Amino acid sequence: MKTLKTGAQQVKEIEDKLAALEKDFPGCGSSPSSGESVDASSAGMPNSADAATSAGKFPSFQGKDLDGNEVTSDKLFSGSKVTVVNFWFTTCKPCVGELGDLEALNKELASKGGQVVGVNCFTLDGDATAISEAKDILAKKGVTYKNVWFASSSEAGKFTSELFSYPTTYVVDKYGNIVGDPIVGAITSPEQQKTLSKLIDQAIANSEG
């Protein structure tokens, strides 16, 4: 996680420099396009040949939300027909850029018995500074859905360390099964939204079947 944070800070410094250049030379930079992502290796995240992309059970965990309330994967998933799990980190521009879309999705899913849950990778192991920074961004973006953390040494933590790009979004049914392949990159493009919608419908069908 230390390596990840160091790499992400370097990415942030580069983005800050680009922002400064944009002020002096309008048009030299551009906002992330729909579906854009940040490669994990560029942010210091180890890249695994066995990245967490295959379907199966979402790793069980015992963790907490950002307010310190206990959270277990069993209760988290079993209480909803579908759970959209979004992995992000604080200095990832595409990640932060899609928070508003995820909040809107969470409200939409509430009427279907579903939810969105965020996992900010900087907050793993309960890092107090990272939690404070994440909560600040979430508040500014008007996000109300639950964000959780767990131990980096846990199975869920190892699963997280194998992600190759951010943001990455998984769809999970009430039995804890991952439905389909993960959505890599922001969900803001029509194509990504269409794919996500199909996975959500499948998860709900699994849960009701």
Radius of gyration: 17 Å
Order of helices and strands: HEEEHEHHEHEHEEEH
Structural class: alpha+beta
User: What gap, in angstroms, lies between the N and C termini?
Assistant: 39 Å
How many strands? 9
| Major beta-sheet overview | 4 strands, mixed
* Overall geometry: globular
Q: How large a portion of the residues is in β-strands, by DSSP E?
A: 15-25%
* Mean pLDDT metric: 84
Q: Please give the order of strands in the largest beta sheet.
A: 5-4-8-9
Low-confidence stretches: 24-32, 46-54
> Considering DSSP H and I runs of 4 or more, what fraction of the residues is helical?
40-55%
In DSSP terms, counting alpha (H) and pi (I) runs of 4 or more, how many helices?
7
Key traits:
alpha+beta; 3-stranded antiparallel β-sheet; globular
Task: Explain what the structure shows.
The chain is an alpha+beta fold. The chain is built from 7 helices and 9 strands, in the order αβββαβααβαβαβββα. The strands form 3 sheets. The protein has a 4-stranded mixed sheet with strand order 5-4-8-9. The protein has a 3-stranded antiparallel sheet with strand order 3-2-6. A two-stranded antiparallel sheet has the order 1-7. β2 and β3 (70-72) form a beta hairpin. The longest helix is centred in the first third of the chain and has 23 residues, at 2-24. The relative contact order is 0.21. Residues 24-32 and 46-54 have low confidence and may be disordered.
